Known about the structure:
The protein is mainly α. The protein folds into 2 domains: 37-105 and 177-239, no CATH class; 117-171. 71% of the residues lie in helices and 0% in strands. Helix 7 crosses helix 8 (139-148) and helix 7 (117-133) packs across helix 13.
Amino acid sequence: MVGKPKDDPKSRLERLVKALRERKPIDQIAEAFGASEKLSKRAAWENDALHEAQMLKLQEIEPAFRTEIDGPVKRAFEAFGLSPGNPSDWQVLVTYFAHIHFGSATKPPGRPSKWTGERLCQLMFDFAVARNANPDFTNTKIFERMIKDKKHRDQYGSETTDALKDAYRKAKNPATNEVLARMQEAIQVTLWSTIRETINKTKIDLSDDEVRPLVPKLALDDALKLIESRWPSIKKALRN
């Protein structure tokens, strides 16, 4: 028998974020959290009206940007798993680029390291690919394989297993990987805004004081997943 889902703030927020990631309609989210029918319908109407207005505006400006949407702009959306057909994703994309390029995260103090933020992100991506191809391998075995692999010889051929382990730990820590820190910052801004807007519309029982401390960890998880699954595309989009 399946029990009822946990109803503490952390669990409610996780359920809400899951629904948002699945792009569920606002009325379905409200219903899932026991919001009244009146509130659900009102929220759905407001959301649909806003979406329609945004789409009309997007249709007005789209012809002027058709070439870009079919080219580098489209690739930027694809790099972050976003859609140019979703008006909200335009704001998300701008926020990502602004924070990644001009965010407050700084490089770790000390002498410049050969393990730059970009190289640390590449290590995370390469490790994730190797992990998916060899799910039964230990981390040590994966790093040994990466050092010996001809495909990675230029990147990791001169490294030791311990050096890769240490770099991997730094790669997953925003304090030692400024690229990850800026991506976390960008996602945190958009996630916080989306969560607050949805809570206000649906009247879900979550306060700012309950939500705010949990958002950085959710944003970090999302940033790590993006890097592990899309880093080459993201790197290319950021450089173009």
